[in-house]
Design goal:
Keywords: Membrane, Transmembrane, Transmembrane helix
Distance between the termini: 14 Å
Number of strands: 6
CATH class of the largest domain: Mainly Beta
CATH topology of the largest domain: OB fold (Dihydrolipoamide Acetyltransferase, E2P)
Order of helices and strands: HEEEHEEEH
Strand content: 25-35%
Shape: elongated
Largest sheet: 5 strands, mixed, barrel
Strand order of the largest sheet: 1-2-3-5-4
CATH architecture of the largest domain: Beta Barrel
Low-confidence stretches: none
Number of helices: 3
Number of domains: 2
Structural class: alpha+beta
Helix content: 40-55%
Radius of gyration: 21 Å
Mean pLDDT: 84
């Protein structure tokens, strides 16, 4: 039974280390490292995960077979309702793709900027702010969670004599 606890703690530590590594490794998006795609807008749809807190958006443009996606990390920066109201089918739009974002499939591309009618619906600066905030927020959440676990364990040992 003790070996399972040790393996469990090792897996938790490895998972937390991986999350921290990915958080601190993530660099701000640089305009010169993005790819510009222009095309006629076909459709957009929301994709919610099972948790309902993670929303991503998929955009289709004519003559492009790639899956163009706004990842959940950047979805708060996207003015979805404005985009739906103001951008019509077959209207010319301009997308910027982050070449540093890697997915399992090579035909999935991460959208970091959307412009139509000289208006920006997804802003690069907002995403860079989100990246910087996550470098501060995620470690704080992890430290808070670890402190909570230690406090619970302390009270279990002290008062329940486990």
């Amino acid at each position: 039974m003790k070996i399972f606890k040790i393996i469990f703690y090792i897996l938790i530590i490895l998972g937390l280390t991986y999350v921290l590594f990915r958080t601190f490794k993530k660099k701000e998006i640089e305009l010169n490292k993005t790819e510009l795609i222009r095309g006629k807008f076909k459709s957009i749809y929301e994709s919610k995960s099972a948790r309902r807190t993670s929303i991503s958006y998929h955009i289709e443009i004519e003559n492009d077979s790639n899956i163009l996606k706004i990842i959940p990390e950047y979805s708060k920066c996207f003015k979805f309702q404005e985009f739906l109201q103001e951008v019509k089918t077959n209207q010319e739009i301009e997308l910027r793709i982050d070449n540093d974002e890697k997915f399992l499939s090579k035909n999935v591309k991460s959208i970091v900027s959307i412009q139509a009618n000289s208006k920006e619906y997804l802003n690069l600066q907002c995403e860079n702010n989100s990246i910087q905030n996550s470098k501060f927020r995620i470690p704080l959440i992890m430290i808070g969670g670890l402190i909570l676990i230690f406090v619970i364990r302390f009270f279990e040992i002290k008062f329940l004599k486990v």
